[in-house]
Design a protein that fits this description.
Radius of gyration of chain B: 21 Å
Shape of chain B: globular
CATH topology of chain A: MetI-like fold
Mean pLDDT of chain A: 86
Order of helices and strands of chain B: EEEHEEEHEHHHHHEHEHEEHHHEE
Largest sheet of chain A: none
Helix content of chain A: over 70%
Distance between the termini of chain A: 6 Å
Strand content of chain A: under 5%
CATH class of chain A: Mainly Alpha
Largest interface: A-B, 20 and 28 residues
Number of strands of chain A: 0
Oligomer: heterodimer
Number of strands of chain B: 13
Number of domains of chain A: 1
Low-confidence stretches of chain B: 329-334
Chain lengths: 322, 334
């Protein structure tokens, strides 16, 4: 296991280099430059060109990439152009917490909600409840996250006034009591987390349902029932444990989806995470910041898959890595 | 045999499935009895209703689409039909256990062998976790598994088919059942392992005086172990007799066909004699005797009327028109 882990972690490095190079190519294929937004009555072309030269933006593509790579390898992600020279690492660090909070709350919530629904749907196959679940999950995966977000804001925040329209906390809450702060945070979390978890829950429900159906047809389920075990024990101890094994892979694969969903959700709910940061980075073609954010997202995705593989081995005794 | 000294009494069991093409009758009114400690062999080809019979005894058939009816399903003096799910669970794995075909699929891949045996011990014998662990190892030793402490900690994929079937037998015995239904217990195993597993079941049967229903398509396997044999064809029992008598002088042409179609290892080598044709379409049962399209001794009446159940000799019954005349007085039901 230790050997396997070491090998997998080493594989991360070439993967990240490949991804970063691709991202670099794509960013540079976009017309315009990081300084385009400076164009105005107070800036001349000459001044912009001089600034480009100063930043090294006039050098060949490959040279710029290698410069970035060697600096990154030394732990220096560079400095943002848009945010007047603040370090990319600092910018990401400041926004990381809220995004991770949103993402992992949504991931845990969708999984916890999806398991009982998926099990119900599979054990009541072709019943009215099963059809309802199938219909709702279909609807949930079909609605785009930004639309759902805006609709939720309109209905639950604006019309009904149950939840705040956006943001992470009310102004000044940080200075109040710790409990009050947490409650306020939870209150702000409800809408964005629900919106983000919606499609994910639906996807999990569908996977768990089909996985459960397959397991319920296995001989060992009949054996478990022939032992005289109660239906509940047969389903939750004998079937679910087997049915969740393939779902672990889906869990790992859903991390990138959740992250991109989170970025959109954050923009809708003015969540102070990486969503707005990356939106601005894209709009202003802030190369260093874009590279930093993408590198970070790639790392999260790779780690998600690695974790999924490790959990897979832990859950299924038939799989042992050497 | 009176109702008192019989452990299991099945009267007129019918099992049907509602399918998209209509109603499929899998078991068509069969009756049989099993005495305590007796081994009844249930023989027939695929689709003859053997497994469906066993599953409906334990109420393990999904209903719907299945539908199980019987005039009586008496087990150890109790009528099983109408019994609550809770009592039924106490019987399953406790008083009546089952051993399945293909042990590799019949054990849960994510739990250890020991854990799966312990489950039965805790459920039906009320043992504590610790007691169950010790007892499970004893059970595994009892069925002849080498180094049972190790085996108890292994997952199913680490053991061979023969070892798994031994573990299944240990699991079935753990509830101290009065009746074990073994559904094709040796079909998925190598021939040499088959013999060992059969030997083990025989030994356990003698030791604990457990009754068995041994289901197989293989007459050889049944002959090895069963006291009596019931031959099933298309959902009916066509013949039942003591094993030796049945093998020596089969009455029903189908039984004769089954015996003739077995390869003989020793003695003169004759070409195999398969039974021509296939089993009847269970969705559209033909009129008359269900076997008549394949029977080499069929008569006119076989096409039209279902044969009565006859008792040409004591302890024997057969459903065939060939024996109807010999028994002018005894035609019809027992």
């Amino acid at each position: 296991m230790r050997h396997y882990l070491a090998r997998r972690l080493l594989q991360v490095i070439p993967t990240l280099v490949g991804i970063s190079f691709l991202v670099f190519l794509i960013i540079n294929a976009v017309p315009g430059s990081s300084l385009s937004y400076l164009i105005g009555p107070h800036m001349t072309w000459e001044q912009i060109e001089a600034r480009e030269k100063q930043l090294g933006l006039d050098r060949p593509l490959l040279q710029r990439y290698l410069t970035w790579l060697s600096e990154t390898a030394r732990g220096n992600l560079g400095y943002s152009i848009r945010y007047s020279g603040r370090s990319v690492a600092d910018l990401i660090r400041a926004r990381l917490g809220p995004t991770l909070l949103l993402t992992f709350t949504a991931l845990s919530l969708s999984f916890l909600v999806a398991v009982p629904i998926g099990v119900y749907s599979a054990t009541h196959q072709y019943s009215r409840g099963d059809y309802l679940v199938t219909f709702l999950t279909m609807a949930a995966v079909s609605v785009p996250v930004f639309f759902l977000g805006i609709a939720a804001v309109k209905l639950f925040a604006f019309d009904l006034g149950w939840f705040p329209v956006g943001g992470m906390t009310d102004i000044g809450r940080e200075h109040g009591s710790r409990l009050g702060y947490l409650l306020d945070l939870a209150h702000h979390l409800v809408l964005p987390v629900s919106v983000l978890a919606c499609a994910e829950t639906a996807r999990f429900v569908r996977f768990i349902r089909s996985s459960m159906l397959e397991v319920l047809g296995q001989d060992y389920i009949r054996t478990a029932r022939a032992k005289g075990l109660a239906q509940r024990v047969v389903i939750y101890r004998h079937a679910l444990r087997n049915a969740l094994i393939p779902v672990i892979t889906i869990l790992g694969l859903s991390l990138p989806l959740l992250f991109s969903g989170a970025l959109l959700t954050e923009i809708v709910f003015a969540w102070p995470g990486m969503g707005v940061l990356s939106l601005e980075a894209v709009q202003t073609l802030d190369y260093p910041l874009l590279m930093g954010i993408n590198l970070f997202l790639a790392l999260m995705v790779i780690l998600g898959n690695l974790l999924a593989d490790i959990f897979y081995a832990a859950a299924d005794p038939r799989i042992r890595y050497r | 045999m009176t109702a008192l000294d019989c452990l299991l009494q099945v009267e007129d069991l019918r099992v049907a499935f509602d399918t998209f093409q209509g109603r499929l009758t899998a078991v068509d009114g069969i009756s049989f009895r099993v005495k305590p400690g007796e081994v009844l062999g249930l023989v027939g080809e695929s689709g003859s209703g053997k497994s469906v019979t066993s599953l409906s005894l334990l109420r393990l058939l999904p209903q719907p689409p299945g539908k199980v009816e019987a005039r009586a399903l008496l087990f150890d003096g109790r009528e099983l039909q109408g019994l609550g799910e809770k009592e039924m669970r106490r019987i399953r794995g406790g008083e009546m256990a089952m051993i399945f075909q293909a042990p590799a699929g019949a054990l849960n891949p994510v739990y250890t062998i020991g854990c799966q045996v312990e489950e039965v011990l805790r459920l039906h014998r009320g043992l504590s976790k610790k007691e169950a662990r010790t007892r499970a190892v004893e059970m595994l030793r009892l069925v002849g598994l080498p180094r049972p402490e190790r085996v108890a900690r292994e997952y199913p994929h680490r053991l061979s088919g023969g070892m798994l079937q031994r573990a299944m037998i240990a699991m079935a015995l753990s509830g101290k059942p009065k009746l074990i239904i073994a559904d094709e217990p040796t079909t998925a195993l190598d021939v040499t392992i088959q013999a060992q597993v059969l030997e083990l079941m025989k030994e356990m049967q003698r030791r604990f005086n457990t009754a068995f229903i041994l289901i197989s398509h293989d007459l050889g396997v049944v002959a090895e172990m069963a006291d009596r044999v019931a031959v099933m064809y298309a959902g009916r029992i066509v013949e039942e007799a003591e094993t030796a008598a049945l093998l020596k002088r089969p009455l029903h042409p189908y039984t004769g066909g089954l015996i003739a179609s077995r390869p003989a290892l020793a003695g003169e080598r004759k070409p195999l004699q398969p039974i021509p044709g296939q089993g009847p379409d269970l969705l559209n049962r033909p009129p008359g005797c269900l076997y008549h399209p394949r029977c080499h001794r069929r008569r006119e009446i076989c096409r039209q009327e279902s044969p009565p159940e006859l008792q040409p000799e004591p302890g024997r019954r057969v459903s065939c028109w060939l024996y109807a005349e010999e028994q002018e007085d005894g035609g019809g039901d027992r």
